[in-house]
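Section 3.1: Structural characterization of target chains.
Under the original work plan, the team committed to producing a structural model for every single-chain target entering the pipeline before any wet-lab resources were allocated. The record below documents one such target. The sequence was received from the expression subgroup and is listed exactly as submitted; it comprises 332 residues.
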Amino acid sequence: MKDPGAHPNRRPLLALILLSPVIAEMLSGSTPPLEWLNPIAALLLIWLYGAGVLVMRETAVRWKTGWPSILLLGAAYGIIEEGLAVKSFFDPAWMDLGTLGWYGRWLDVNWVWAVWLTLYHAVVSIAIPIFLMEWIWPRVRGQPLTGRRGYITAIALLAGATIFINILLTPYRPSVWHLLGAFAVVVFLVWAAKKYAGVLWSRLPCRKAPASPRVYALAGFAFLMGSFLLYGGGPSFGVVPFITVLEGAAVLVGVMLLVRRTSDDPRWARQRFAFVAGCVGFLIVLSAFLELAGNRGMGIAGAAFAFLLVHLYRKAFPSGESVVVAPGPQTP
């Protein structure tokens, strides 16, 4: 029996807040499942990611700017987390950098890492959780999950998490100019998300009909795997940092042109789902290798998401012919 006093969007809201840290941190292996048994670490991740994905999604909905805007806002979130909160964009000794602590470092900025993580957070931390949440609950597409007070609270929580992590949890101290520069890029991306994201997206060519869903699934898998290989293996694949960034940009443009063909036509919903499933599929495969490498619990996390994707696909396309999930007004 439903509680008449419960928030009407309680379930999608909770799912969105949890999906972002679970996909971006747990499924990727950055924070394996056993580390989530530490309640402080788990709450901190939910605080940062949950507030971030909610702010970016609600902002795009209120502006009525759609998915191109969500991706730019997601990039802004990536800079907030990695540039202003944990400061991995600037710290040469950041634990996850590896060779990127010196490869692509210039003017005390880890440039290759910064580009990679900005793209990663835009897609994995922000866009994919929003897509999956709205796929499960299509009624909330284009609709706010919170009221004005909830939206302002989410912004305050994101700002509070950023300041808390910056001051108390990460000891590296970049210059004020580095922090101001990161903040300026965030402001620019937010402005561009509101003013130009939809316009630029609409100008991309989309005359050719989309390929089969299988092609889109492979493209999603290759896109995320390629970003890990190109950026993470920068010295091996790029030789020099500038070439690495150009390689990543070429892959990104190719994916944008492919996804643009779907144009939010309800006939191509399966292609859009397949692309997202392909991206998550790479993380599922990665989780299996991480389990074999000794990160206990990664296999369970991967299997759970594999089950979720199969369940969502079968629910949306029970006969393999018709589209059950109707497009919402939010997506351009």
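The chain has one domain: 10-316.
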